[in-house]
């Protein structure tokens, strides 16, 4: 079998630089090619977390609470785990998550 697949996936979208991410441990890209993305972690950490930070309740932008390791919505208090699952309502649906990784000096995500 020698079907040729392109080694470079074009699905990965750059949302910022690793320097930006490392500065605060999070990176919010409101208008990335993949839509709004919030990446949490550092370029040195093994696992990056990326979600669509649009609250599933009424569309506010959730923030990352590093100490509590969860996403919290400023509008009506919904909370989501690092995996996007709802921890506390009124939201009932999980945040959309993305795969994320560092590529060179860029942070890239895949919807
Ligand atoms: Fe997030 Fe209502 S919009 S809790």
Q: What's this, in brief?
A:
It contains one helix and ten strands. It is mainly β and 111 residues long. Residues 55, 57-60, 73, 75-78, 90-91 line the site of FE2/S2 (inorganic) cluster (FES).
Average pLDDT across residues? 91
- Percent of residues in beta strands: 35-45%
Ions, cofactors, ligands: which are bound? FE2/S2 (inorganic) cluster
The total strand number stands at: 10
The rough form would be described as globular
Distance between the termini: 29 Å
Describe the sheet with the most strands.
6 strands, antiparallel
The CATH homologous superfamily is called Rieske [2Fe-2S] iron-sulphur domain
How many domains? 1
CATH class bucket: Mainly Beta
CATH architecture: 3-layer Sandwich
How many DSSP H or I helices? 1
C-alpha Rg (nearest Å): 15 Å
CATH topology: Rieske Iron-sulfur Protein
Sheet with most strands: strand arrangement: 1-10-9-4-3-2
The helix/strand series, from N terminus to C terminus, equals: EHEEEEEEEEE
Model regions low in confidence, pLDDT < 50 over at least 5 residues? none
Q: Pairing-aware structural class of the strands and helices?
A: mainly beta
Helix content: under 10%
Describe this structure in words.
- With 111 residues, this protein is mostly beta strands.
- The protein has a single domain, classed as 3-layer Sandwich (Rieske Iron-sulfur Protein), CATH 2.102.10.10.
- Helix content is 6%, strand content 40%.
- The protein has one helix and ten strands, in the order βαβββββββββ.
- It has a six-stranded antiparallel beta sheet with strand order 1-10-9-4-3-2, covered by helices on one side.
- β6 and β7 form a beta hairpin.
- Bound molecules: FE2/S2 (inorganic) cluster.
- The site of FE2/S2 (inorganic) cluster has 12 residues, from loops.
